[in-house]
Specification:
There is one protein chain. With 91 residues, the chain is mainly alpha-helical. The chain has one domain (6-90). The chain has three helices and no strands. The chain has helices at residues 8-31, 41-62, 68-90. Helix 1 (8-31) runs antiparallel to helix 2 (41-62) and helix 1 packs antiparallel against helix 3. The longest helix has 24 residues, at 8-31. It is elongated and about 65 Å long. The mean pLDDT is 84.
């Protein structure tokens, strides 16, 4: 199976992994910015991690992420195929 024909659930899982990784990389960057850039003060600081996570999800969905999603999807498909081969051998 190729990444193009991968099941949607696997595609979503790989994309979610990429978004999470990108979000983790972006959090420290945003933590160094002044909190008053939007004028939200303490409330802004509370919501900032969610904003960064959503930005990472959007980047991943649009194809402007890190490129990890494709690599993860290929690896998931490889593991799935290896598991199917093992099942066939044990029958």
């Amino acid at each position: 199976m190729t990444p193009v024909s991968a099941p949607p659930a696997l595609r979503r899982a790989a994309q979610a992994f990429e978004a999470q990784a990108l979000g983790q990389l972006l959090q420290p960057i945003f933590a160094t910015l002044p909190q008053s850039r939007f004028g939200g003060g303490a409330a802004e600081a509370q919501w900032q991690p969610m904003l960064v996570d959503e930005m990472a999800k959007a980047a991943s969905r649009s194809g402007h992420g890190l490129g990890l999603g494709d690599a993860v999807l290929r690896e998931m498909l490889r593991w799935q195929a290896a598991g199917a081969r093992r099942e066939d051998q044990t029958r």
